[in-house]
Give the backbone structure.
Amino acid sequence: MADDSKEEDNIPAARALEDISCCARCVLRLLGERDISLYVNPQEKDVKRTCVACLGILEKSNGNTYIDKIQSSVTDAEHQFENFMFTISLPHSVILRQSPFKISLDFTYEDGKKELEFLNYESSKSRPRQRRKRQKYDPVTVTAAGVKKACAELTTVNLLKRVADCPPKSAQSPSELSEITCSHDSIHIAGRYNKYSRALSQTPWIINNVRHCESSVEEKICDLITAKVKPDDHKFASAGREDIDVRMLGYGRPFLVEFINPRVTRLSRPLFADLQKEINSSSADIAVRDLQQVTKEQCLFLKDAETNKTKTYKALIWTEEEVSQEQLQKLANEKDLKIFQKTPLRVLHRRPLAVRERYIYNMTPELIDSHYFNLFLKTQAGTYVKEFVHGDFGRTKPSLGDLLKTETDILQLDVESVDVDWPPRTEETDELKNSS
Ligand SMILES: [Zn+2]
């Protein structure tokens, strides 16, 4: 390392890598050491555990064992050869343990197309004669395994000479490094959102390329993060979703965004705090909190929460006939009410037809006047609240109308809470709460 201060910076990182049992060579390569001479004889501590990164393949203590083994295997094989090609195949687990940033090189050799044309002939040998002529060489379908397999069948020099030049002709042009691809594993950002608008969809609402809603919760959150993270693409997910005309209040709904092939991957706490402020000041329709980076493993919590969570709602109800305080008290007495919901008409185009059993855990009515009241409900995940209120032409049984023995309709709906303890609360949010 040319720069002394950089070397000092690396000491804690090197220790941390040693502590999780990285071998000396892996410590060097993971810190990005480019001086190849340092790898020859690195200072290795008494590592008792196998290196977590290379699974022992690069460990100095194994070096001589490998060389001895290779030497004796080659000697025992008794081949005559003037030169050799050296190939290595690593355990697939090593891939999992590698850096999230990958540089892939793709070499192509123009004359190779001609050279490998015999593959068609070979592979169509068993096919009827008339089909053989129509076969065209397609470089896209050629795989390394296919070439190896075809070569394995060329067991004598005479067989080889039928399809290729032996020794090979000199190349007309060198191989070309035709493609270099840089990619980074996805990063995941989680948080909770509130939606204060009754005219904002959760995700972009576009049918046949026509936009039906100017923006969306997803865009209001992701556009600003995308500008910082610079990914190729992103995927938005949340613990359930609310309709366009439903507000999401309380502590908010957990969401998760996967950013695919991100350019910026090291996001500090202060950066998240700034991002959060930026998103919150950009629109009065939404707010985010607990914005943070999460690991892939942590993302599984959201999937779990999707099915196990409970939700609380506040609904504004209208009744055709007058309702009394006594009638409403009956609703308050209902606990763990079991209802059966046939897939609502309004979602039939995207959900399979089924009857789902759901629970309304409790209801707390608040009379406004003889035809209007607020109803607070705590329900199981996946309950269609609007349908529970108006009955969906008898598709939900019992409905609120059945219980009150009158026609009922829902005028407004707010989600008061999505009871999922994920993602973890952050300091910035506590500050936000204290200041508001
Ligand atoms: Zn190692």
Q: What stands out?
A: The first helix runs from residue 4 to 19. The pocket of zinc ion is lined by residues 22-23, 25-26, 51, 53-54, 58-59 (CB under 6 Å). Confidence is low (pLDDT under 50) at residues 1-5, 126-134.
